[in-house]
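Worked example

This section walks through a single chain of length 389. The input is the sequence exactly as stored; nothing has been trimmed or padded.
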Amino acid sequence: MLVVLLMAAAFFLYGVFEHRLHLRSLRAIPIRVHVNGTRGKSSVTRLIAAGLRAGGLRTAAKTTGSAARYVHPDGTEESILRVGRPNIREQVRVARRAAAEGAQALVVECMAIRPRLQAVSEQMLVRSTVGVITNVRPDHLDEMGPTVDDVAEALAGTVPRGGVLFTTEHRRSGPAAAVARARGTEFHEVEPRGGDQGLTEGFQYVEHAENVELALAVCEHLGVARDVALSGMRAAPPDPGALTIDRVRVDGREIEFVNAFAANDRESTVAVWKALGPRIATAPQVFVIASMRADRPDRAFEFGAIIAEDLEADRYILTGSLTHPVRTTAVRLGLPVEKLVDLTGHRADQVFRKIVELTVERSIVVGVGNIGGTGGQIASLFRERSAAG
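Given that input, the structure is written out below as tokens.
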């Protein structure tokens, strides 16, 4: 019994020691930005860090998206290697590393999904001076739901105390605003500035204007001029899950592939489609690839409605392991069955060949649904073919 008590005491003292070390790391980094939200967290994290770096602040960053990355204050980056499942304690090591590298600012993407862990991440691990909530959309409803309003409540858990909060969410900003008032935090809803039509030009990938506006608002608040911050953002490399475009020429045909698989809900998919508006309007042929995973039947039904009602294309290629709900829903909602090409269970190279076959001279292909499984394989194949010239 004595041994057990001694071990418990040792663990407790070690925990206290670790916590004090962590607080010392946080105190060494005067600017701490915690980025939360449903969509765009990784992109906004990178944009803010790049903007601050361009303004002369030694800024480290850490993303948790498609492929977790640590970005050093000099802008170089590396993958974060994990043993086992992701754990929010990862933020402790990130803060310690940033402090050791002399970072003046640290921008981190929220790792947690469960509401309680989101609050713990902010109050115990990040203790941000600036909070960011990109948007509130219907995702992870099994853990944050069941409603989108519940998601808004959960995301508000990362509002800082005595700091500043920025968001581009307008319809469901109430919970965050209320928590900000209770915690003595300034609350800012970021509105797009009129007349800045070229805001998203010059990026190496397709970026959403609201992400750029949000990041610019944070940078300006922290003393970096808008034009300086924007220049730094445009020069920064994209997140692996960013909306990229790969151009492939094969058999005398030109295909532009847009990797939008990470946009896996209706609002995000429609936002991507609108962002691609000029490209889609000038393309002779427009194809949509809807890739579905067997473990997300709810998403399959949702995307049946999305392709029927929101995405106007010449052909819709259904792939992955669960296409039947997509097909039946889309047809029920009036999509002509002859526009559907069902490639359930086909390999990525077979999907690629079908797209080449359907393309007469030039086409744009937009991948939506799921980045996992077949979707990711298709994106990788297009990237490889594009790099090969």
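What to look for: The longest strand covers residues 285-292.
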